[in-house]
């Protein structure tokens, strides 16, 4: 898979599988922060030092291919247009932070986009492994293998007392952040979500919107991640998050069954109306699109809507983001109204195509 | 066409044509109030006197058939269930007043439902002639022919000084009420409707909702009718209403063009969303259904929506009324929630069928 494919296709290949509890947990993610020994952290390093790290990391590409047989691409951020960088953000392949500046920054990404390494973001290296569904262990195993391959070639800053050294003290220790992206429409509809956010926070977890820190929880999608790393082992962090995620899944599932039992007709009307608007609207804001898509996905999961497959939700989550739309539109810069029109058009087309394909 | 057909089919045959300005004027109607000479008005007559009038009128059925070759049905109201009577109201064949009580009341109706004579409503006879589109003259000609046929056989109360005598003094003189049913979504959307209602009222006309006096203007449908009759000739009344209706049509048409010119995209989004909700909702109240149907009809008239023909609007106006729904449902009495579900189901089915049939 070439870079063009990664940029053009809304659905990352690793997303297609579904995975355990894939009706509620869209993806599991492990991120490891790593820094080169004896080189200042990116925000204090000279340009030449950062460039040297980029050069060093180029050598790791073959190591990674030898590791798992996948193709890995090495991409200097300067070779990408700002638009292309933000498409990678919308596809959850890089962080908004990395997209902001291109100089001396690079990305290694696996052909299926399940593994990516950001170079010279807040830390020298940010290793990210993604897995479909609730599958933190596989993501952790994958991240550890990638980390081993990198540490086999490069000297990584590590203190016996503090663990991995990182630019921000909140990452000190394992340098690990584990997160799950969960779709919780029933907990939102039934008003239970706030209690859940409070409970998760008390357990040392953070609950955020779909694009991480500072983003809103549009489309009823939440990212739950560990906050603490210093003083905790990798396995402990992952198990803690896993056990909370399991409870969240169970609560969401109960809330869905309660909705079905108590107000099946109201729910059916609601999700079908959302589907009807998506099928025919001529203009859709990003926020409205996500809300309606969330309701449609709930309808699909509850077997109320059978006209389209569940994966259209994951696909349209990306396709309808502003930068992805701009990429589709080509040269001419889209105004907000044109963007809303294009978004509606793409959703209509996608639902129509999938209806025909999946039509029973 | 038997009574069963008149009750079961939502679209009266005379509606299918469209008629002049049929995109805005759904129908034109002439009603003549007539009373038998030397018999008290219905609210003061004895049962035996009313029964005698019903008997007398039975003889007019053949006269009417000889007049225009159409079949005419004679229906005693007591032979109909209350539900069937109210279906006739929803189809604009009889008035709510006639449906309320059945004793000594009857109806003569032409096989295409374009002509009906209510017997022993407020007056002994209420002759009604309907024509599609803006076509008051044809409706008046038709009503006069029917009136002549009746007056050829029966002695009708008439004073040289006051004209036709009627139970209510507002009908004295010609006994004529002329009305047009107009669909004015653009005047409503653009906020011009109130000015129009005020102007029409100053010209001695009444503007009401779809089911006459006291009914709300749901679905952007209005009935405009003359208020005054004493001291005015038939032709004068009809010409006065016609000229106002023409202006209303012109204003509505200008308002539609202005909407297209100023906010085509917003309008397209709005009418397609309405269509999407109608195509997929699982529950629709009568009022919401009419509002959405009105927007869809506007979309069809402005050639924004091309998936379904305009006549579905006229058809669904009747099909989605409570009594018609109850008739469709058969024996079991519908609760409000069931009715809303059945309404949504029928609308979905109708749009689906017409899409397939008319599909381009």
TrEMBL record, chains A, B:
Domain Phosphagen kinase C-terminal stretches = 24-255
Output the Gene Ontology terms for molecular function: ATP binding; creatine kinase activity; protein arginine kinase activity
Q: Which UniProt keywords apply?
A: Allosteric enzyme, ATP-binding, Kinase, Nucleotide-binding, Transferase
- Give the motif span (RDXXRA motif of the pArg binding pocket involved in allosteric regulation): 339-344
Gene Ontology CC: one annotated term:
extracellular space
Q: What is its EC number?
A: 2.7.14.1
Q: Which domain of life is it from?
A: Bacteria
* Regulation of catalytic or functional activity: Appears to be allosterically activated by the binding of pArg-containing polypeptides to the pArg-binding pocket localized in the C-terminal domain of McsB.
Coiled-coil positions: none
Read off the Pfam families from this record.
Answer: ATP-gua_Ptrans
Query: Biological process GO terms, please?
Result: phosphocreatine biosynthetic process
Q: Which InterPro entries match?
A: Arg_Kinase (IPR023660), ATP-guanido_PTrfase (IPR000749), ATP-guanido_PTrfase_AS (IPR022415), ATP-guanido_PTrfase_cat (IPR022414), Gln_synth/guanido_kin_cat_dom (IPR014746)
Its recorded reaction(s) are: L-arginyl-[protein] + ATP = N(omega)-phospho-L-arginyl-[protein] + ADP + H(+)
Q: Where does ATP bind?
A: 27-31, 92, 126, 177-181, 208-213
Similarity comment? Belongs to the ATP:guanido phosphotransferase family.
Function text: Catalyzes the specific phosphorylation of arginine residues in proteins.
Q: What name has this protein been given in UniProt?
A: Protein-arginine kinase
User: What's the source species for this entry?
Assistant: Thermosinus carboxydivorans Nor1
Tell me the classification of the organism that encodes this protein.
Bacteria, Bacillati, Bacillota, Negativicutes, Selenomonadales
